Amino acid sequence: MQIWLKRAYDPPGSRDGTRILVDRMWPRGVSKEDAGIDLWLKEIAPSTPLRKWFDHDPKKWNDFKKRYFRELDNKNEAMKRLLDIALKGRITLVFAAKNENFNNATALKAYLEARHRDQDPMKAGLQT
Hints:
Blueprint: E1 3-7, E2 18-21, H1 32-35, E3 39-40, H2 48-54, H3 61-73, H4 76-88, E4 91-95, H5 104-116
Parallel strand pairs: 1-4, 2-3, 2-4
């Protein structure tokens, strides 16, 4: 399983594979044509209250992941769809956040990889 991460403001690349936007809102200032998004899975994004609480604060990262992973545990249909796509070939999780290390796409990638290995994401050494 190959999962890449890329900001929505970076140009699509020929090696991106299936580009999946994982944010609840469309990135500001990015046209649908320029984004090259194959699938928009807004239902996989963190809830609005969680996103606002986190606010990309690195100090809240571990708590954010725990809360977000609990939300993902309850999104079986969307997670199955995403895993099915990821198992067929390379995917790129596209996100708009400025912080490339502390964002929902980074957490989602860790969650997917741990679930694929049948591990608990929080126990799989994902602490940052």
